[in-house]
Amino acid sequence: MIRRWMRTWSTQLARYAVSGLAAAAADLIVYVVLNRMGWHPLAAHLVSRPVGGVVSFSANRCWTFRGRRFAWPLLGQVWRYGAVWGSAYVATEILIWLYLQWIPGRPVVVKVLAELTAGFVAFWVQREWTYRGFAEAASSETPGGRLGGA
C-alpha cells in the first residue's frame, strides 16, 4: 500500500513538474517579450502570470491528477485553484520586488527565483486541496481522518 502511494505520488510530482515547466515557459515567454518592450518587471508579471495559470490548471486537471475521481466539481476546483494561485501570485510579486533589491538589472533571473521559491509549496496544496481525490476527501472527514478526531 505504501509502495503504491509512493508510486502514485512520485508520478504526480513528475507530471506536476512537467506541467509547471509548460506553464512557466508560457509565463516566461510573455514576461520576456513584455520586458523587452520596455515594461517594468512587476507590470510584465501582472500579465504573464495569468497566462501560465491557465496552462497550469488545464494541464494539472487533465493530465497530472487524471484518473482520480475528483472530490469537487470543476467549479469547485477552479475557485480552489484560483485561491492557491492568487496566494502564490501575491507571494511572487513580493519576491520579485525583494529579489530586485538584491539582484538589480536581472529581471529574468529574479522572475525564475521568485517562481521557484513560491512553487515548492504549491504542489502540496494543489494535490491535497484543489485536486483531492474522492476517497481522500471522504476519509478526511471521518473520525480518525486527517481532519477528524484522534
User: Major sheet, described briefly?
Assistant: none
Beta-strand proportion: under 5%
Can you write the helix and strand succession as a string?
HHHHH
Give the radius of gyration: 17 Å
**Whole-number total of structural domains:** 1
Total strand count, please?
A: 0
Q: Any idea what the shape is?
A: elongated
Low-confidence stretches: 138-150
Helix coverage percent: over 70%
| Computed structural class | mainly alpha
Question: Whole-number average pLDDT?
Answer: 82
Number of helices: 5
User: How far is it from the N-terminal to the C-terminal residue, by CA?
Assistant: 22 Å
Description of the structure:
The protein starts with a helix and ends in a 10-residue tail after the last helix. The chain is mainly α and 150 residues long. 25% of the residues are buried. The chain has one domain. It is 79% helix and 0% strand. Helix 1 (2-36) runs antiparallel to helix 4.
Main attributes?
0% strand, mainly alpha, disordered C terminus, 150 residues, elongated, 5 helices
List the helices and strands and how they pair.
Elements: H1 2-36, H2 41-64, H3 74-102, H4 107-130, H5 134-140
Short description:
This protein is mostly helical. The chain has helices at 2-36, 41-64, 74-102, 107-130, 134-140.
